[in-house]
Amino acid sequence: MTSDKSPGPAPVPLGKDRTTVLGYPRGDLLTILIGTPLLGLVLGLALPPLARWLSKSPVLPWRDGITFVGSLGRPWQTGVAVGVGLVAGLLLAFTDIDETLKLRLTDAELKAEQHEGTRTVERARVSAVFLDGKELVVLDETSRQVTRGTHKASAATLARAFRAHGYPWRDADPHASLFSRWIPGAPGLPAEAHAVLAARKAALKRKAGEDVRDLGETMQGLGYVVRDEGKDQYWRPLAGEES
Q1: How far does Cα 191 stand from its chain's mean position?
Q2: 198 pLDDT exceeds 70?
Q3: Model confidence over 10-55: pLDDT tens digits?
């Protein structure tokens, strides 16, 4: 795996138009495409004998399911378990790749691809680019989060690429001091915003990623940016809308 402490692989420049592509680092891509399915295959192979060993325990949760898995002794039954493990590993690998932000930078604009969608932002509209934990955040001139997502490249690689194209890379969120922890019904937010944050909290508990993203966009439409820290939601007004 590429360490965040190392510079990581250099961005890939394309042609004379000074285009830089930042995707999944090659080493990490090989690891997840080969390692995750291989791990699933090994787990599938080991599951029946492990289940038979566990079924001897006098205190056994999910006894029926474990006993059933342990009964897979015939070669074709074990093959099914191995196949399921392999498919599960492939699904996990491709899900991780789909969730990862892919970037295409030029001196004029950036294109961010994630969740089968692409968003284009002119460089002149970008007010800040920074890392918030493992997520890359791009703010526009109103401090709206136009792009936010996990990227596998190191911080040094990202900073070098954005600075090379003239984007305002920051070491931290320039608006961090404006965030407040959301407390249901607390003053400072209209009732509509409280309702959206309550719905977003429920979506976070369900791990409904698409709903979480949509409700975050709804908050920005109301004039607020939202971010998560642990199990808590934090909010701030867009630039120029501070009370």
Answers
A1: 29
A2: yes
A3: 454 544 468 898 865 555 555 555 655 566 556 655 665 555 555 5
Backbone angles phi, psi at 231, to 5 degrees: -95, 0
Alpha-carbon gap, residue 101 to 150, rounded angstroms: 6
Cα torsion through 96, 122, 239, 235, rounded to 10: -10
Domain boundaries, the chain: 26-99, 103-164, 176-237
Q: Give the Cα separation of 151 and 172 in Å (integer).
A: 16
> Which residues are CB-neighbours of 23 under 8 A, at least 6 positions away?
100, 102, 103
Task: Give DSSP secondary structure letters for 78-127.
Answer: HHHHHHHHHHHHHHHHHHHHHHS-EEEE-SSEEEEEETTEEEEEEGGGEE
What whole-number distance in Å separates Cα of residue 165 and Cα of residue 139?
16
pLDDT value, residue 117: 79
Please report where in the chains the tokens 């800040």 appear, as a residue.
Answer: 128
- Tokens encoding 175: 């608006």
Rounded Cα gap, residues 152 and 175, in angstroms? 24
Answer for the pair 137, 129: CB distance below 8 angstroms, yes or no: yes
